């Protein structure tokens, strides 16, 4: 039997992506990741996690966590997020960059081409340079940096 903790962890990551506008979509996305859940289970999980429906920058209404943080994402390890026109640098506490990079990779954001982690820095390369500013904003939000 699957644990509710595992399912909720996967749901948190889906909420961070901000791509699901209905509970049915969340059920399908969870199933694609190996977590079977009914709409009523997802509804209870959303309430428990404090999720809400908000408007994305493009106007679409999607489910997200309040404040945009993802429990399980090591946001407390992140000390800063900076970017230029082409790339994003995430600064972390010493020795924490690989953990942050792994969690970011696990989110499987379509806007991320790749990441490279050192000791206290994660380089995030957007798939398209037109996405750099928005991706940096999402990363700051994810880390709880506003």
What features would you highlight for this structure?
single chain; 39% helix; 4-stranded antiparallel sheet; 146 residues; 23% strand; 2 domains; 6 strands; two-stranded antiparallel sheet; globular; Arc Repressor Mutant, subunit A; Gyrase A, domain 2; alpha+beta
Describe the structure.
By secondary structure, the chain is of the alpha+beta class. The chain has 2 domains: 4-68, Orthogonal Bundle (Arc Repressor Mutant, subunit A); 75-142, 2-Layer Sandwich (Gyrase A, domain 2), CATH 3.30.1360.40. It has helices spanning 4-17, 23-32, 39-49, 97-107, 132-142, and strands spanning 51-55, 61-65, 78-83, 88-92, 112-117, 121-126. The strands form 2 sheets. It has a 4-stranded antiparallel sheet with strand order 3-4-6-5, with helices on one face. Strands 1-2 form a two-stranded antiparallel sheet. A hairpin with a 3-residue loop joins strand 5 and strand 6 (121-126).
């Amino acid at each position: 039997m699957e644990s509710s903790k595992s399912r909720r962890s996967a749901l948190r990551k889906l909420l961070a992506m901000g791509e699901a506008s209905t509970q049915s979509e969340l059920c399908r996305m969870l199933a694609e990741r190996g977590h079977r859940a009914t709409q009523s289970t997802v509804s209870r999980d959303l309430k428990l996690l404090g999720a809400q429906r908000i408007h994305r920058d493009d106007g679409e209404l999607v489910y997200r966590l309040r404040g945009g943080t993802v429990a399980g994402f090591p946001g407390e390890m992140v000390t800063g997020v900076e970017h230029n026109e082409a790339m994003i640098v995430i600064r972390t506490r010493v020795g924490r960059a690989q953990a942050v990079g792994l969690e970011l990779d696990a989110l499987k954001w379509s806007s991320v081409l790749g990441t490279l982690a050192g000791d206290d820095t994660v380089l995030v390369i957007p798939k398209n340079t037109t996405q750099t500013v928005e991706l940096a904003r999402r990363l700051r939000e994810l880390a709880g940096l506003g």
